[in-house]
Write a structure and sequence with these properties.
The chain is of the alpha/beta class and 462 residues long. It folds into three domains: 14-99, Winged helix-like DNA-binding domain superfamily/Winged helix DNA-binding domain (Arc Repressor Mutant, subunit A), CATH 1.10.10; 106-114 and 360-461, Aspartate Aminotransferase, domain 1; 120-357, Aspartate Aminotransferase, domain 2 (3-Layer(aba) Sandwich). Helices cover 39% and strands 16% of the residues. It has helices at 14-27, 40-47, 51-63, 83-88, 120-133, 148-162, 176-188, 203-211, 255-268, 325-336, 341-352, 355-381, 407-415, 446-461; strands at residues 36-37, 67-70, 74-77, 92-94, 97-99, 106-107, 171-174, 194-199, 215-222, 225-226, 238-241, 271-275, 299-304, 316-319, 386-388, 395-399, 418-419, 421-422, 436-440. Strands 7-14-13-12-11-8-9-10 form an eight-stranded mixed sheet, with helices on both faces. It has a four-stranded antiparallel sheet with strand order 15-16-19-18, with helices on one face. It has a three-stranded antiparallel sheet with strand order 1-3-2. Helix 7 packs parallel to helix 8. It is globular. Bound molecules: pyridoxal-5'-phosphate. Pyridoxal-5'-phosphate binds next to helix 7 and helix 8. The site of pyridoxal-5'-phosphate (PLP) has 15 residues, from helix 7 and helix 8.
Length: 462
């Protein structure tokens, strides 16, 4: 145990300083569970302080459970007090803050990004710069639309990367795509209205609509996305699509269907809501530009930084046709005033200084590798498996001819430590996808992917 000299001039008592030093050594894993610590006499001697001070500090550590006395042996770091023991149980503590337990499943949830590659250092530096150097005003209430510099940076980024045409007044920064979709629903759906939604569709987004009491009209999607020929004859409040990489089937909407969708929206005097959540990641060919760029008056474009950076940031955005700006602005205001300004300033710099482009290039390689490992392992384990959808995003759909992914099979896999997501779960009209599952690979390491497929093989073949 190495102890630093105590500050004899400061206002903090020597007892308090010694207590904090030893407590921090335990929490930070520098003193391990079961490790014997120096006697009070040894510490008093090495720090040149009175033994009473050490006894007082030790008493406090004993009473708070950091230390324990084993008679005739000495004083030891108590069981369960060290970071190492906490980590084993799945939670981590840092300076007294406890981080929540991580699930131990190999979770094939679609759309989970590789959070282990979050650019921690750069983000820490940018947020630190913002906190230390920005004017005090940024710590007050901000504009409900979001930080102006982020919206301006986004105009250029979205034009370049996604062909989105807008000016900054049309952008509102939201707490993820989730809030954007919730507010759009509140704004556009009146009593007894309905929303046309591609089927199958992500349950999370669908639940946002139904939670707001909107009815859903399912429009079947195939390998090329939503089928405009099946759109309802009655006017929907809006049509919800994920045209770049449909979730879950993974299709990219053809230009013919995009044009048909726009014609439909114009004829019905209704909007298209375009969710563009993972389009930066394409692995064959380039990414197809947004529908918004084809008709900015007809399309509400929704984006997020949850997949490209981290869902923990809770930063998304909506690009609105001009007549919707004012009413949306009010809804955002009454919802939560605005999204965290500090994070927005850091993000604006992250994009402006080119770190986002660099991060996307890096992540593309990682996801490409993970995707290849998964598809190769699947094909080796199941020679008849069929991988559906465009090579993009962070998930595939795998079809296993002759297999039905029942609740029992999913539960059995869960007991083996693997979570899978049957496509039927996302289907509004049931019965067409019983042999297909979504396999998200973004947040799973190469080793886990291989292990996950082995577990699938063992259980599915049985
Ligand atoms: C289709 C779709 N769009 C967007 C998102 C991102 O939502 P948020 O930005 O609120 O994290 C998700 C989340 O899983 C999703 O499934």
């Amino acid at each position: 145990m190495i102890l630093k000299d105590l500050n004899r001039q400061g206002s903090v008592t020597l007892t308090q300083q010694l207590y904090e030093q030893i407590r921090s050594l335990i929490l930070n894993d520098e003193l391990h569970e079961g490790e014997r610590i120096f006697s009070t006499r040894e510490v008093a001697g090495s720090l040149q302080i009175s033994r009473n001070i050490v006894i007082e500090a030790y008493d406090r550590l004993l009473s708070e459970g950091y230390l324990e006395i084993i008679p005739k042996s000495g004083t030891f770091v108590a069981k369960g007090a060290s970071i190492k023991a906490a980590k084993k149980e799945g939670s981590i503590t840092l300076q007294g803050i406890v981080f929540e337990k991580q699930p131990t499943y190999i979770d094939f949830k679609g759309g989970n990004p590789a959070i282990d590659h979050f650019p921690r250092k750069k983000w820490a530096q940018l947020t630190k710069d913002v906190c230390l150097d920005a004017p005090s005003s940024i710590f007050g209430y901000g504009d409900p639309c979001g930080v102006l510099s982020l919206r301006k940076v986004l105009v250029n980024y979205l034009r370049r990367a996604r062909g989105v045409i807008c000016d900054h007044s049309q952008i509102v920064i939201t707490s993820g795509a989730t809030q954007a979709l919730k507010l759009i629903t509140e704004l556009l759906v009146k009593k007894d209205d309905f929303i046309a939604v591609e089927d199958p569709v992500t349950d999370e987004m669908r639940n946002i609509f139904t939670n707001a009491d909107a009815s859903i009209f399912p429009v079947a999607a195939d390998h090329e996305g939503i089928q405009p020929a099946l759109l309802p004859e009655k006017r929907p409040s809006f049509t919800f699509v994920i045209p770049s990489h449909q979730f879950p089937l993974g299709g990219t909407l053809t230009i013919q269907r995009r044009v048909q969708l726009l014609e439909y929206a114009r004829k019905m005097d209704s909007y298209i809501v375009e969710d563009d959540y993972d389009s930066e990641f394409t692995y064959e060919g380039g990414s197809v530009p947004s529908i918004q760029g084809l008709d900015p008056d007809c399309v509400i474009y929704v984006g997020t930084f949850s997949k490209i950076l981290s869902p923990a940031l809770r930063i998304g955005y909506v690009v609105l046709p001009k007549p919707l700006i004012e009413p949306f602005y009010s809804l955002k205001w009454y919802s939560d005033r605005h999204t965290s300004s500090i994070e927005q300033y850091a993000l604006a710099r992250f994009i402006d200084e080119g770190h986002l482009d660099k991060h996307v290039r890096k992540m593309k390689k990682i996801y490409m590798e993970r995707r290849k490992v998964l598809t190769d392992a699947l094909q080796r384990a199941f020679p008849t498996v069929h991988v559906i959808g465009k090579a993009a995003g962070m998930h595939i759909v795998a079809q296993f001819p002759g297999i039905t992914f029942t609740k029992e099979l999913c539960e059995k896999l869960m007991q083996e430590g693997v979570k899978i997501y049957p496509v039927e779960h996302f289907a509004l009209n049931k019965g067409s996808h019983a042999d297909k599952i979504v396999l998200g690979y973004g947040g799973i390491t190469v080793e886990e992917l291989k292990k996950g497929v082995e577990i699938l093989k063992r259980n599915i073949q049985e």
